[in-house]
Write a structure and sequence with these properties.
Elements: E1 2-3, H1 14-18, E2 22-23, H2 26-39, E3 44-47, H3 56-68, E4 76-81, H4 88-96, E5 99-107, H5 111-117, H6 124-136, E6 140-147, H7 154-166, E7 171-176, H8 184-191
Parallel strand pairs: 3-4, 4-5, 5-6, 6-7
Antiparallel strand pairs: 1-2
Helix pairs in contact: 2-3, 3-4
Amino acid sequence: TSRGCPYQCIYCSSSSFWGSYRFHSPEYVIEEIKELVYKYKVKEIQIEDDLFIANRKRVERISKLIQDEGISENVTFQCLCRANLLNEDIMKCLKSMNVQNICIGTETGSERILRTIKMGSVTIQQNIDALKLAKRYSIRTHGFFMIGAPDESKEDMLETYKFIKENSMDSGQISVMVPYPGTEIWNYAKGKNLVSEDMNWDIFDMDF
């Protein structure tokens, strides 16, 4: 329903790849959802936006239209969120449109590393509060974590391990930071002669 992201995390290629953050109107989104539901009889829709909740008023409008159409009675949703934007108002909207699962880029348990890779836009406490809030609304959570940030130490990684153990999530995954072209981390890696324009990207195949 949207393209790009208004944030500038140093590892994410979305903002550099798409440029500006753009989104369809709530009315357009509902027409697409109605086609999926009434023509193709889908029962679950995963909203693949990098950040579905970026615009609160838009989320509120989409939620209301979904309720008005009666779609939330028979269809469940999943979406990607951001901890610093998850509050009571947004959570009520997600719950009313029958969102069953949200994915959050928790990334790390180290405040120092999180401040670096997310440019100070979110804190560990906000991640913790978002997970608790989702649990209170009975919405499942999936946490995205990464290791391999510049200057990340063993102690930082152990902070991530501790965060995962101490905070309730229904599922999660840990990935290795990849220096995508156009990102700040790419420029850093290129300055260290770790990447090049004609590199073999197969070295980043992280299937386990």
